[in-house]
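Encode chain A's predicted structure.
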Amino acid sequence: MRPKPKATPDDMAFGVNPCVMALATGVARSLEYLEDTANQRVLDLVDQARKAQLSVQPVALERLDELTGGGVHQGVLVRLRSLPEADLRGVAREATGPSLILLLDRVTDPQNLGATLRTAVAVGVDAVVLPRRRGAQLTPGVHRASAGVSFLAPVASPQNLAQAVELLKDAGYWVVAAEQGEDAFDATAFDWPEKTALIAGSEGEGVSQLLSKLSDFRVALPMDPRVESLNVAVAAGALCYLWRRQWPAKPPADIPNG
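Encoded structure for chain A:
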């Protein structure tokens, strides 16, 4: 019997929705599914994978449980290719109009990261910046929490966030930290810069002192004083939409008839 893995490998996604998105975005390299499944969505994924000429293998339930560390796999998992990484310098250089870049400082919970990535894609954030250390990365838990939308997110992973902030400042971005304090602006009345680099920290630790000092502005969501803080995914989502309210996305160009 194979020993149970101590942790689920990062080159994997499991559950129907993450696998759907992995196949749709071309990042899946193989698929494994429950050998006696009657789940039509799983069977459809098997057909899609075979049509894409991916390796497809039926496996026993115990094997799926083992591979996913006991996660809710719904009878299917995919192995992933190396995920593409956004070029932060290139994104900043090519931004000629309104642009929002979200930097996540010390956000370690996969559920929070997955939910934040889902919102970032919905809002149209140009890049989500994750530090290589002291923060969650793109793991199976993140893919599941985002329902696979993490495969659509433009994620950049520089060596550290301070360097990323300096790069963005040089490219004309104003740095806004989501942080409570006497000098914090009410986020609902704040005049959001056209090019904003928004820093959101974890619920427990908030934005680090270094990044706070590098910020041009601080903003806070107005809240009932009995509520000390908001989940980072909720707070970041609200702030991103406040920026988008001021800087609406351009509608897609009309497609000529005929």
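The chain has two domains: 12-80, 88-246.
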